[in-house]
C-alpha cells in the first residue's frame, strides 16, 4: 500500500476496516505478482503488457487487471507510452540486494494463506492450530524464503549484537542458530571462539554453506536435532537463544532454559535476543503494530508469543540464572544477558583470556553502557 499517503486523508475517504480490506487485497495481489515473476521482469526496466505477458507466461487480457491494481497500490507505475514500470516501492523486492524484502513477502504470503485459518480457535482454546516448523520442513521453497528473511535481518543485527554482548569466552552454543549468521559474527569478532549450532536438519542447510564461505568450517559445527531433546553438550561458556523463546509456550521455555543451564559451565552466560512485549519507549507505531501482529502469529502457528521481559527473566531465575541485564540493540529487538553462579568473569579476566581478540568490552560497547534493568534473579 502507498503508506506514504497522509493517513488522515485516507481516513476521510473510507472507514478503517475498508482500508484494511484494501491492504489485505494489495498484499495478496503483490504476492501473486511476485510468484508470477512480474516484479522480477519489471525490475530490469519498463515493459509493454504483451511482452510482460510473454515473459511471465500469463494471459495478456488478465494481466493488466493485476497490473492496474498494483498501480493503485503503489507497486507499479503506468508510463505515458502505456508500458508498466516497477515503482520505487517495488525496488525493495529486488533479490539482488542483501536487504531485499522479497523473501519476507513470499514467506508471509504462504504463511498467512495457509496457517491463519485457525486464529479464532487459538483464541478460543489457547492452543496453536498448526505445527509451524513441521509445515516448514515439508515446504522447501517456503523454508528457503524463511531462512533468507532471517538471514537478511541477522545481517544487519549480528555486528551490533556481537559488539554489545559480553565476551563469549571460548565455547559458544547457538541454540536454533540455523542460518549461522550470529555464530559467524561472534567467531569473527573473537578469534579463539568455537561454536556449535543446534537446529532442525533443513534449517542448517544454508548455515553450513555460509560457514564454509566464511572459512570457518574448522570452528563452527552444525548439529541437526530438536533443541528440546538433542544433546546440547556440556561446558559451554556462552549460549545464544536468539528469536527462539517466542516459539515455545511457558512450560516449553522452562524446560529449554533448564537444558541450556545444564549445557553451560558454572558462571556461564546465556544471551537471549527477542522483542519483549513491554517494548522500548519510543518504539515507532509500525514496529509496535508488527510486533503485536507477530505475537498473534506465534500464538496460532506455534503456541508461543512475544513475552514480557519479566516473564523471561522469571524462567531464567527458575533455571538458576542471575545478574539479569537488558540491553537495547536496534528497534524492538533487545538483548537479555544472564549468568549462572560460579567462576566470576570480569572485563580484566576476559581480556587475559583473549588478549589478541581486539573485541574486549569497552564502557561504550559493553554491557555497562547499555540499558540495564531487572538486576535480580
Ligand atoms: C525465528 S528462527 C531464529 C533464527 C536465529 N536464531 C535468528 O535469531 O535469526 C528460530 C530458529 O530456531 C529453530 N528451531 C525452532 N524450534 C526448534 C526445535 N524444536 N529444535 C531445533 N531448532 C528449532 C528454527 O529452525 C529456526 O532456525
From TrEMBL:
Domain of life: Bacteria
Presence of the UniProt keyword Transferase in the record: yes
Statement: the UniProt record of this protein carries the keyword Transferase: yes
InterPro entries (UniProt xref): COMT-like, COMT_C, COMT_dimerisation, SAM-dependent_MTases_sf, WH-like_DNA-bd_sf, WH_DNA-bd_sf
Keywords attached to this entry: Methyltransferase, S-adenosyl-L-methionine, Transferase
Region of interest (Disordered), ranges: 339-377
Residue ranges occupied by any O-methyltransferase dimerisation domain in the UniProt entry: 25-93
A molecular function (GO) term: methyltransferase activity
Protein name per the record: SAM-dependent methyltransferase
Domain O-methyltransferase C-terminal positions: 166-321
Biased composition (Basic and acidic residues): 345-363
Swiss-Prot/TrEMBL GO biological process terms: methylation
Species classification: Bacteria, Bacillati, Actinomycetota, Actinomycetes, Streptosporangiales
PANTHER family xref list: O-METHYLTRANSFERASE CICE, PUTATIVE (AFU_ORTHOLOGUE AFUA_4G14580)-RELATED
Amino acid at each position: 500500500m502507498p503508506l506514504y499517503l497522509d493517513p488522515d486523508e485516507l481516513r476521510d475517504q473510507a472507514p478503517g476496516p475498508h482500508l484494511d480490506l484494501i491492504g489485505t487485497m494489495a498484499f495478496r495481489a503483490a504476492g501473486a505478482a511476485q510468484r508470477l515473476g512480474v516484479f522480477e521482469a519489471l525490475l530490469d526496466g519498463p515493459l509493454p503488457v504483451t511482452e510482460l505477458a510473454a515473459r511471465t507466461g500469463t494471459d495478456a487480457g488478465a494481466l493488466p487487471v493485476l497490473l492496474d491494481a498494483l498501480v493503485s497500490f503503489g507497486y507499479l507505475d503506468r508510463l505515458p507510452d502505456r508500458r508498466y514500470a516497477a515503482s520505487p516501492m517495488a525496488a525493495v523486492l529486488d533479490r539482488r540486494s542483501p536487504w531485499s524484502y522479497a523473501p519476507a513477502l513470499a514467506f508471509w504470503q504462504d504463511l498467512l494463506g495457509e496457517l491463519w485459518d485457525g486464529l479464532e480457535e487459538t483464541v478460543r482454546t489457547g492452543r496453536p492450530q498448526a505445527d509451524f516448523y513441521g509445515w516448514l520442513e515439508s515446504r522447501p521453497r517456503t523454508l528457503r524464503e524463511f531462512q533468507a528473511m532471517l538471514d537478511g535481518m541477522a545481517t544487519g543485527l549480528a555486528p551490533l549484537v556481537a559488539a554489545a554482548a559480553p565476551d563469549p569466552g571460548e565455547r559458544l552454543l547457538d541454540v536454533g542458530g540455523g542460518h549461522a549468521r550470529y555464530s559467524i559474527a561472534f567467531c569473527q569478532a573473537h578469534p579463539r571462539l568455537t561454536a556449535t549450532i543446534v537446529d532442525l536438519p533443513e534449517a542448517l542447510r544454508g548455515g553450513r554453506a555460509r560457514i564454509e564461505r566464511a572459512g570457518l568450517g574448522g570452528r563452527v559445527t552444525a548439529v541437526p536435532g530438536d533443541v528440546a531433546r538433542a544433546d546440547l553438550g556440556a561446558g559451554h561458556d556462552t549460549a545464544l537463544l536468539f528469536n527462539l523463546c517466542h516459539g515455545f509456550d511457558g512450560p516449553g521455555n522452562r524446560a529449554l532454559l533448564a537444558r541450556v543451564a545444564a549445557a553451560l559451565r558454572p558462571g556461564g552466560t546465556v544471551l537471549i535476543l527477542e522483542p519483549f512485549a513491554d517494548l522500548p519507549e519510543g518504539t515507532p507505531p509500525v514496529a509496535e503494530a508488527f510486533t503485536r501482529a507477530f505475537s498473534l502469529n506465534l500464538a496460532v502457528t506455534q503456541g508461543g508469543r512475544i513475552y514480557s521481559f519479566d516473564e523471561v527473566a522469571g524462567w531464567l531465575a527458575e533455571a538458576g540464572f542471575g545478574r539479569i541485564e537488558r540491553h537495547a540493540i536496534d528497534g524492538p529487538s533487545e538483548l537479555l544477558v544472564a549468568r549462572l553462579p560460579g567462576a566470576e568473569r570480569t572485563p580484566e579476566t576476559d581480556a587475559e583470556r583473549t588478549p589478541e581478540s581486539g573485541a574486549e568490552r569497552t564502557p561504550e560497547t559493553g554491557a555497562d553502557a547499555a540499558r540495564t534493568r531487572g538486576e535480580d534473579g
